[in-house]
Amino acid sequence: MMTPINIAATSVVLLLITGLSAGLLRRNQGLLIRVSFILSALASFMATASGIWTVKNGITEKIILPIGLPDLPFHLRLDALSGFFMTVIGLLSFFVSIYSIGYVKGFIGRRPVTRLVVFYCLFIAGMFMVTLADDALFFLVSWEIMAAASYFLVMFEDEKVENRRAAFLYMVVAHVGAIAILLSFGVMAGLSAGFESFSGFTFDAMRQAQFPVEWATVAFLLAFFGFAAKAGVIPLHVWLPEAHPVAPSNISALMSGVMLKTAIYGIVRVTFDLLRVFPWWWGAIVLTLGLVSAIMGVLYALMQHDLKKLLAYHSVENIGIILIGIGLAMIFTSFKMPMMAALALIAGLYHTLNHAMFKGLLFMGAGAVLHATHERNMEKMGGLIRRMPWTAVFFLVGCISISALPPFNGFVSEWLTFQAFLLSPSMPNQIMKLLMPMGAALLALTGALAAACFVKVFGVVFLGHSRGHHNQNIHEVDWSMRAGMMMASLTCLALGVLPTFFIEWTDVLSESLVGAKLSASAAAGGWLWLTPIAPERASYSGIIVFLGILAAYGIVYVVLHVNPGKIHRGAIWDCGFEKLTPRMQYNATSFAMPIRRIFGFLFLIKEDVQIKKAPHPAFPKRLHYFLRVRDRFWFWIYMPFTAAVFWIARKAGRFQQGRIQTYLIYSFLTLIVLLLVKSL
Amino acid sequence: MILLILLGVPLFAAGVLAFVGDRRLAPEVNITGSAATFAAGVALALQVYEQGPMTAGGNFFFVDAFNVYLAVLTSFVSMTTAIFSRRYMRREREHGRVGHVGMRFYHSMFQLFIFAMLLCLLTNNIGVLWIAMELATLSTVLLVSLYRTPTAIEAAWKYFILCGVGIAQALFGTVLLYFAAEKVLGEGGDALLWTNLSQVSDKLEPTVLSLAFVFLMVGYGTKVGLVPLHNWLPDAHSEGPTPISAVLSGLLLNIALYALVRCKTLVDGSTQSHRAGDIMMWFGIISIIVAAFSLLRQKDIKRMFSYSSIEHMGIATFAFGLGGPIATFGALLHMLVHSLAKSSIFFTVGHASQMHRTQEMDRIRGLIKGNPLVGWGFILGTMAIIGMPPFGIFTSEFLILTATMKDAPLMTPFFLLGLGVAFAAILRKVQFMVSGDAPSYQKPMKAAHLPVLVHMALVLLLGIYMPDFLNQWFHKAVEILK
Amino acid sequence: MEGIVVEILQVTVLIALAPLFAGWVKMVKCRLQGRTSPGLLQPYRDLKKLFSKDIVLAENASWIFRFTPYLVFGTVIIAGAVVPILSTDLPLSLTADVIVLVGLFAIARFFTALAGMDIGTAFGGMGSSREMMVASLAEPAMLMAIFTVSLLCKSTSLTRIAEVISSAGFIAKPSLAFAFLAFVLIAIAENGRIPVDNPATHLELTMLHEAMILEYSGRHLALIEWAGMMKLFLFMAIGSALFFPFGIAATDNIAGIPAALLFLVLKLGAAGVALVLIETGLAKMRLFRLTEFLGGAFLMATLGMLSFFILE
Amino acid sequence: MDLQTVSQINGFLAAFVLLTAFGMLAQKRIYSLIHLFAWQGFFLSVNTAIVAYVAGKHHLYISSVMTLSLKVIVLPYILHILVVKLKIRKEAETLVNIPATMLIGIALVIFSYYLTAPVTELSSLITRSTIAVALAVVMIGMLMMITRKHAVTQIIGFLAMENGLFFAATSATYGMPLVVELGVALDVLIAAFIFGIFFFHIHTTFDSLDVEQMTRLKEGD
Question: What is residue D210's DSSP assignment?
Answer without folding.
Answer: B
